[in-house]
Each structure stands twice: as C-alpha cells, then as structure tokens.
Amino acid sequence: MSTTPMQRLACVLKARPYRERQRIAKQSGVGFSAVARALAGQQVKPGVYLKLCGALGISARTGDAAPVRVLGDFDWNFFGLGFHLTRNMMNLRTVRQASKAIGEHVSSATISRLENNKPISVNGLIAVCNFMKVDPEHYCGRSESSHVKRRSETREGATA
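User: That's the sequence. What structure does it adopt?
Assistant: Structure tokens below.
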C-alpha cells in the first residue's frame, strides 16, 4: 500500500517531540499552525511541505533520509518552464497527452495550471517531479538565513 507525501510527512512529525516540532517550524520558516496541519495529515501548501521536509532531513519525493537543509520559496515560474521543456522533449504535444503520461491522478487542468506558473497540490507536484525525475527542492530558492554573505555585507567588509 503506497502512502501519500502528506502521510509520510505526518509520520515523521509524529515521531518528534513537541519541542522539536517548534524548533523545526522556526528553522524552516513556517508557522507552527502549518506544522500542526501537516502533523494531522492535512494538506499544506507545497512550499511549506518542501520546507518542512528540508528541516526534517527527508526527501520530498521519496521520504528517504536526506541532509537537513533550509529551503527558500518554491519558484513556480522556473518549475513551469522546466515541465514545459520536458513535455516538449518527450513529444507530448497536448496537456491531455502529458496528463495521461504522468498518470497518478494528475489532470489536464493541473498540467495547465502548472504551465501557467500557478501552484498545484503537493500530490500533483510530487507526481510531476517523479515523471520529470527531478527533486522539487531544486526549484526552491535559497533561504535568507542560509546563504553566505559577501565580504562587503559583513562588518569586516564595511570597515575596509
């Protein structure tokens, strides 16, 4: 029996104590109410799902162990372009053909939303990423707290 991405995330969150869930919410940059929704197995926005997976150290696609990372916001424009290019390379001329090729309950309306840079559900995102054979984390920007500052942005660079 296969589990959905939200069910996998809920299982990982349930194994963590309350205080650690608070730390994960703060570290990932999402509200604690979003963590509570994910813990209950309810749908959350795809960006929240990816940030929580990164903070928990699990792969968003497979649920396997991965390095802990701080992710920025998901770039729907870049993802839509990547999917459109993949679809063209596979010679899938219509959104209906693409929908059939992906399967996993991804409708042609979902494909249309995706190619018009609109958000889709977590389940749809993971299904499309599996079809493209890419990790959705690649479409996340850097978090403000995770990038290395240039020398000019540091105190030493300001005094030089």
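The beta strands are 71-74, 140-142.
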